[in-house]
Amino acid sequence: MIIKSMSRKSKSFSQLYDYLTRDKSSFTFSRNTYANSNNKKEFVNEFYTNARYLREARGKVYMYHEVLSLEENNLSQERQREILLDMADKYLYQRAEDHLAFGVVHEEKNNMHLHLMISANEIEGEKRVRLSKQEFSSIQQRMENYKNQKYTELKDSFMYHNKKDLSKEKKQEQELKNRGAKSIKDEIKRNLKETFTKATSEMYLENHLKSMGYKIYTRGNTQGISYKNKNYRLKTLGLEKEYKQLFKIFEQKSKREFRRKQAKNDRNKSRDNPRERE
Could you give the 3-state DSSP secondary structure of residue 113? Predict the structure, then answer.
């Protein structure tokens, strides 16, 4: 399986929508949207509206165009589509769980693949969410593992497991060997501060730390980080205040999402009951 990601530094949602839906018979789906994807004007406008929460900046990313494709096989079109849709669902959960997303299956001969249009920010998010090479590589590897284990009718692939090791843990070990004097505690503190700055959700935080070999633990009122079978308290690392502030932000975001879902439900009720609009 091949997974590609291409960033776009313009709000060309309409242009990409037209490209993805050029074959009107293609299967489409969406995530975290309330507009009907068949209604181009309303659907694309939802992406534009969400992009307005981002600060205008030249050369900054506004969306991603990503592609998932299967290796050559002898499966039926229906089975390939079923596999691709499942893979896309698992992929979006890891890659962009809280972003606006639109997917289209292109059933070209001997090359069935799936296109995705993904917003650069989460729902009403003010920050662009960018994956590092290591984070994206980790997702590719997990998806490849999932495909190999679940879909045995496809040939096993190891495209992303033969890549050069990009893990921060390996880089940190090499840096420690070169510098010698830098303590592992300082390295942990630096990595946690960087992660707290980039984290946009609890799921993102957990996955990002896991990719580096870290795990947050809680014992009573004490939070800490486990790394290589050793525990370090956040208070000792001087990060307890930042950690608690981060979860306040997550809570605020959760409330915004609840209000948005409530507004969506009210809108659907209004559509189902036209008399209420009179």
Answer: strand
